[in-house]
Structures are given as C-alpha cells and as structure tokens.
C-alpha cells in the first residue's frame, strides 16, 4: 500500500509537483508532474462589487395657486348684508343672481330699508308712483315689495338666466348690470358700482 506525500518544488521557469510514493518494504518511488506556469492563470478572480448609487425620491412639484383677490365695497359698508342675501336666495335667486341684485340694492340704499328720498326711498328706491314711499319701511316689508316688483317686471327665472359668464364673479357682475338696465331702470345707473358690489357679495358669501 502506498502513501502519497505531495512535495512542491518551485523555480523561476516552472512549477514542479513531485509526488513521492513510499512503501515500507520498497525504496521510494518518485513521480514528477510538471505543471504549466504561471499558476496564477488558473486563479479565478471574483468580479469587483460595485456599490449601487442611492435612489433619491423624485422631487414633488406642488402646484401654486394664484392669491385670491378680494373685491371691497366701493362706497362704504352694506347694512344687513347676510340677511338680505339670504332673503334673495329664499326668493329663488341663484347665488350669483342674488349677489347681482344685492349689488343694485347697495347702490340704492347701502342696505338701509328706511333711507329717505322725496320721490321714493327704501331698500331699492321704489318710486312713490309705483307704490313706494319716501321713508321706505321695515326690511321684511321692503324685501316683499322687491319680490313683487320683480314678478311684475319679469321673473326670478329671468334674473337667474341673465347671470352669465365663465366665473362666479363674472356671473354676479352680469346679473347686476342686467338688473339695473331691465328692472331698476335707474336715473343714475352707476353700473360699475353695482357690479363691483355684486362681485364682493358673491365672494363674501363663499360662492366661488
């Protein structure tokens, strides 16, 4: 029985592997195996590991809205603003049409149902000859007269139909302009004041 004892000899030109077989009864038998050089070509080099670049989350683009421009009342405060607006809505006027009509009431009386005029005072300046009075009346009474006046000269549906435009502000301004021309028929139209007030009312009531 042989016992294999590997003995490795290396020189500059080649690598020699000498296997010596030894037996306890026989002289040693030497077998020489010559391997090609260099051995380094049999070495498998692991590919270098590349670190993955950290993935950064995509930047969020937050849309910015243009700042809201609030239109103020042009010639002072409006009395009973919310109460009048609520009553106009109760008549069946749309939010923008109600703002348009209230813009006309602003020009006529600033919401004061008792404002005086010798030819006809009150909330919307109904003339004496049409059933008005110089000193107007209570707010509910003046609003009732306004509702009757609209029915006599057109209709709630007609007022709503003339509130046109691409935005609530434009619709309220359109309703105010139409109301002064076809319903109020005021001697001093002051349409710009009525329209500006209408835009303010539609904004202040939150109908945007």
Classification by helices and strands = alpha+beta
Summarize model confidence as the mean pLDDT. 80
Please outline the major beta sheet. 3 strands, antiparallel
Poorly predicted regions are 1-26, 39-45
The total number of structural domains is 2
How many H/I helical runs?
6
Q: What is the class of the largest domain in the CATH system? A: Mainly Alpha
Q: Could you give the order of the helices and strands? A: EEEHHHHHH
Q: Give Rg in angstroms.
A: 49 Å
CATH topology group of the largest domain? Lysozyme
Strand content: 5-15%
Distance between the termini: 105 Å
Strand arrangement, major sheet: 1-2-3
Helix fraction bin = 25-40%
Per-chain topology:
Elements: E1 3-10, E2 15-22, E3 29-35, H1 81-90, H2 95-109, H3 139-153, H4 156-161, H5 168-184, H6 191-204
Antiparallel strand pairs: 1-2, 2-3
Helix pairs in contact: 1-2, 2-5, 2-6, 5-6
């Amino acid at each position: 029985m042989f016992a294999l004892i590997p003995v490795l000899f290396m020189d500059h030109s080649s690598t020699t592997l000498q296997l010596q077989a030894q037996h306890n009864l026989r002289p040693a038998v030497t077998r020489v195996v010559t391997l090609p050089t260099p051995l380094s070509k049999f070495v498998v080099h692991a590919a270098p590991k590349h670190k993955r670049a950290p993935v950064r989350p995509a930047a969020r683009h937050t849309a910015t809205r243009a700042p809201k421009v609030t239109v103020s009342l042009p010639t002072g405060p409006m009395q009973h603003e919310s109460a009048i607006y609520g009553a106009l809505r109760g008549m069946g006027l749309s939010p923008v049409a109600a703002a348009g009509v209230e813009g006309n009431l602003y020009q006529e009386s600033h919401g004061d149902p008792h404002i005086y005029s010798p030819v006809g005072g009150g909330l919307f300046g109904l003339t004496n000859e049409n059933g008005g009075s110089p000193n107007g009346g209570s707010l509910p009474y003046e609003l009732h007269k306004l509702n009757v006046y609209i029915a006599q000269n057109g209709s709630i549906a007609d007022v709503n139909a003339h509130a046109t435009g691409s935005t609530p502000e434009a619709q309220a301004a359109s309703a105010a302009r139409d109301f002064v021309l076809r319903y109020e028929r005021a001697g001093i139209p002051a349409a710009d004041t009525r329209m500006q007030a209408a835009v303010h009312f539609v904004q202040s009531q939150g109908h945007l």
